[in-house]
Amino acid sequence: MKKKLSEILISFFAIIPDFMLSKFERIFAFLKYIIFSSRKKKNIKSIIYFQNENIVLNLKKNDHQAHDVYRSLHKKKDVIYELPLISIVLEILKKENFKNFLDLGAFMGYYSCLIGKIFQKENINIYAIESNPEYCKLIKKNIKDNNLKNVTLINSVLSDKSEELYIDKESVHFNNQGKNLLKIKSKTLDEICSEFSINPEILKFDVHGFEGKVLNGLKKNLTDKVKIILLELHSNSYLEKFSNSNKREIINFLIDNKYKCLIVPYYGELNLYKVSDNFSISSHKIPYRIINKNNYEDLFFDKEHTDNLIIAFKDNIDIEKYSCFLNLEK
After folding, report:
1. How far apart are CA 143 and CA 147, in angstroms?
2. How far is it, in rounded angstroms, from Cα 102 to Cα 92?
């Protein structure tokens, strides 16, 4: 029915002069933008398909990032968000006997809910840690709407010490930015793990420039508990502003703490990936390069102003056992 109606409409509009069609095209593109932007003013529910699973994700009104990303996934089977990261997470959790996954900077709870749904029959605890109380309300609703019993929500601001910080959507600031921002006292991740009796084995970081401070607040657990870190490493300008650090220092910190660091994918973007109808995530390969203190300049000469995905493995873990990786050095 839809195909037949499309053919009829195409035949009808083909009669109209081209200069008028060109104007209609611009008008409809403008209307599409207006309608999409108008829907950002509402709390809406996005249904996200992922291979053989789907999750409900309630999105907060007036949050452009949430709507721009997750509404683009609504009921689409041919688009996957951050394919490299989710491929690696799933491969690791299927191969390892990890019991605790920490989602740092959970935002709307996409990763927490998706992993919670996929592994709801396994004995894996997912901890969604988010600084913004307004986002936490949405995460709580998303956990409930997806009927998840294995996801624990923790509303906390992470840093390397206890300090007064200010919440502004997905960002955390050291002052109120001239706005009426919510002030919250931070905790270290070591304190959170102790408070909730968490053995932090695998961590996903998306903390918008606070990477250095959050890692420094994890020193007690880095030595013998944390096995794998999936780190979205933001630009040097962000790291300097929020962590008084840079990419080289953070990577060296991980190497000094006995982690092997990979940059993945070495080529390509991190966000939305178009896939075919018969795409299987288990067959996806992610190209990577191993980072060391000697090759940093070669690997990052054009990447210091972009975001990168860094996977840090404790050095006793054999990364060859994970089939999702493609070593560009071989």
Report:
1. 6
2. 14
- Closest CA relative to residue 316, chosen from 42, 37, 96, 39: 96
| Domain boundaries along the sequence of the chain | 2-38, 82-327
In this structure, which topology does domain 82-327 adopt according to CATH?
Rossmann fold (3.40.50)
pTM of the model: 0.91
CA distance 228 to 186: 24
Place of tokens 């013998």: 224
Which of 15-29, 145-159, 230-244 has the weakest average pLDDT?
15-29
Angle at 207 between CA 296 and CA 288, to 5 degrees: 35
Tens of pLDDT, residue by residue over 256-298, are: 999 999 999 866 555 788 898 889 998 899 999 999 999 999 9
Give SS3 for 166. Answer: strand
In angstroms, rounded to a whole number, what is the distance separating the alpha carbons of residues 170 and 209?
11
**What integer pLDDT is reported at residue 151 of this predicted model?**
97
Amino acid identity of residue 285, one-letter, is: K
Alpha-carbon span 243 to 215, nearest angstrom:
10
